[in-house]
Amino acid sequence: MTVTSPSPISSNSEQSFWYRLTHLSLPWKVTWVYLSFMLFLPLVAMLLKAATVGPAKFWEIATGEIALATYEVTFVTAFIAAAINGVFGTLIAWVLVRYDFPGKRIVDAAVDLPFALPTAVAGLTLATVYSDNGWIGSLVAPLGIKIAFTRLGVGMAMIFISLPFVVRTLQPVLQDLEKEIEEAAWCLGASSLQTFLLVILPPLIPPILTGVALGFARAVGEYGSVVIIAGNVPFQDLIAPVLVFQRLEQYDYAGATVVGTVLLLISLLLLIVINVLQAWGRRYDYRG
Amino acid sequence: MTTEVKSSFSQFNQSTPRSAPRSQGAWVKWLLISITILYLGLILFIPALNVFVEAFGQGVGPFLNNLTSPTFLSSVKLTVIIAAIAVPMNTVFGLCAAWAIARNHFLGRTLLLSIIDLPFAISPVVAGLMFVLLFGRNGWFGPFLDANGIKIIFALPAMVIVTAFVTMPFVAREVIPVLEEIGSEQEEAAKTLGASDWQTFWRVTLPNIRWGLLYGVILTNARAMGEFGAVSVVSGNIAGKTQTMPLFVEEAYKQYKTPEAYSAAVILALLAVVTLILKEIVERKSRITDVQE
C-alpha cells in the first residue's frame, strides 16, 4: 500500500553505519533508549544472574522435583485450555461472522472482557462461582467434582484469560473469505460438510493455530487469576509463575531466577512459533 | 468515488449470508448460537454477573461503607498515580516506535516488531523478577541505591516501571497499522510546503492517527490499572502504602473479607466495562472516518 518515499531514507542508506547511529532522528532515539532501559537491561540482568548460578546448579534447580511438577501442571493445563478455546473460539467466530441474532453486538463486545477485566477480579469471581457452594460449582459438587482450589480451577482460569485470542485472530479472516468460492464448491456438487472441510477450513487453520499459540503463551504466563482460584499446593495445582513468586518471597533468588529463566526461554520459543504461524497465514492473504 | 463502490460492495457482502439460506436447516444455526451462548455464559457472563451480585447483595449501604475505608481509598489513589505516570510514558514511546517502524524500511524490521511485543509474551511474574534483580537489595544497582537512600523496589518507582513494562506494546501495536494505512504522502506534502517536523506531526500525522492512538491509550490504561502479577512482585503489598486496587482485592479475599474484596472488584469491573464501551465507540468512529475519506 505505502508508496516508498524517495527522500531521506535512501540517501541515508549509502552513508556509514556509524553516521546513521549518531544522526538518528528523535523518535529513533526515544525508541532505542526506552527499549534499552526498560527491556534489554532487565533481560540481561536476569540472564546474567542465571549464568552466575552455574550450569550444573542451574540444571539441578531447573529439574528439581517441585519445579518439574509445576512445569507439568502449567504446560499441560495451559495446552488443554488453549485447545478447548481453539474449538470453541472457532465456533464463536463462525457464529459472530455468519449469523445474525438478538444481542449479537453485546456478545461480540463481551469476548474482549478477559482482556479488559483485571486478572485479580477474574480469579476472585471464578473462585466464587466454581467453589462448592457457588452458582456453578454447587451443580457439579454432588457428582464429586471439585473445581475451585484444584487443577480444574487452574484450567478454568486459563480458559477464561485465553478466550479472546482465537476468536479475534479468526474473525477478520472469516470476514474476508470469499463467498463465491464456497458457492462454486456447492454448485459443483460438494455437500455442506465437504465444502466446510475442504474449502472453508484450510485457510482458517493458520489463524486458528496462531490464536491457540497466543492463548497458550498467555495461559502459561498467567499469574493473577490462577493464584486466587488455585490451592497452590505443589504436585497438585502449583503453577510455575506462582513457584517463582513463592521463591522470591523466601529470598531464594537463585531458585526464582532459574525457574523464571526457563519460563522466559519458553516464552521466546513460543513467540518464534507464533511468528512462523503468522507468516504461514499470510500465504492465504489475498488482500495484500 | 471508489469508497462508494467499496462500501456498497461490503454491504452486499454482509447481507448475502443472511439472505441465502442453504441446504443446512435453520436448526444448525440455532444449535451453534446456543452452544456459543452456553459456553460464554459459563466462562464469561455468569462470573461477570456474579461480581455485581456479590458486591450489591447486602445492599448499597455496606457497599459504600467498604469503599470509604482508608486502605481502600489509598489503593485507589496509588492505582491512579501509577497509571497517570506509566500511560503517558508508553504513549510517547509507542508513538516514536510506531513512527520508526511504519515510516522506515530496514533490515530487522520484523525483529524489532517482535522485540516490542516481547512484554506480552513474558509472564508478569518474570517481568517483576527481572526488575527485582536490577534494583533489589541483592541486585545490580542495589548497593548503589542503598548507599544513596533511594528506594525503588517495594516503592512507587518500581511499581510504575513494571506497569510500564507490561503495557509497553499496546500503543505501538495500534498505531503502526494506521500509519501504514494512511501512507506518507500527506506528511511529505506538508514538508514540501515548508512545515517543520513538529508542525507536520501535530497538524497532519496526529489528526490522522487519533483514533488508533486513543484505542492504544485506552488499552494501556486498562491493563495498567488492572495489573496484578508484576506489581505484586515488586510492591511488597503493604496495606495503605504500596497496595494497588488489584492487590487490595486479593488481600481482602485471602483474609476472608469477601464483601470488601467484591466492593473493590466491582469498581475494577466497571473500569473494564467502560474500557469495552470506549473501545466500541472508537472502533465505530474509525470506521466512519474510513468511509468518509
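The mean pLDDT of chain B is 87.
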